[in-house]
Design brief:
- It comes from Bacillus anthracis (anthrax bacterium).
- This is N-acetylmuramoyl-l-alanine amidase C-terminal domain-containing protein.
- Residues 6-49 form the N-acetylmuramoyl-l-alanine amidase C-terminal domain.
- InterPro entries: Amidase_C (IPR021976).
- This protein has a single domain (1-43), classed as Alpha-Beta Plaits, CATH 3.30.70.
- A two-stranded antiparallel sheet has the order 1-2.
- It has helices spanning 2-6, 30-43; strands at residues 11-15, 21-25.
- It has 2 helices and 2 strands, in the order αββα.
- By secondary structure, the protein is an alpha+beta fold.
- β1 (11-15) and β2 form a beta hairpin.
- The longest helix has 14 residues, at 30-43.
Length: 50
């Protein structure tokens, strides 16, 4: 959540019954999206951009 806050992004977090947690962000600028994908890449986390 800290990364979303620092990039001034908003998102809905989903926690599934199997423990999987993910978020769906609101529409964002290209710069914010790049900042978030860079953050996720540094941690080796999987993501999907639609």
């Amino acid at each position: 959540m800290g990364a979303l806050t620092s990039l001034k992004m908003t998102a809905n977090f989903i926690l599934q019954s199997d423990g999987l947690t993910y978020f769906i962000s609101e529409p964002t600028s290209d710069a914010q999206l790049k900042g978030m994908t860079d953050y996720l890449d540094r941690r080796g986390w999987w993501y999907e951009v639609k």
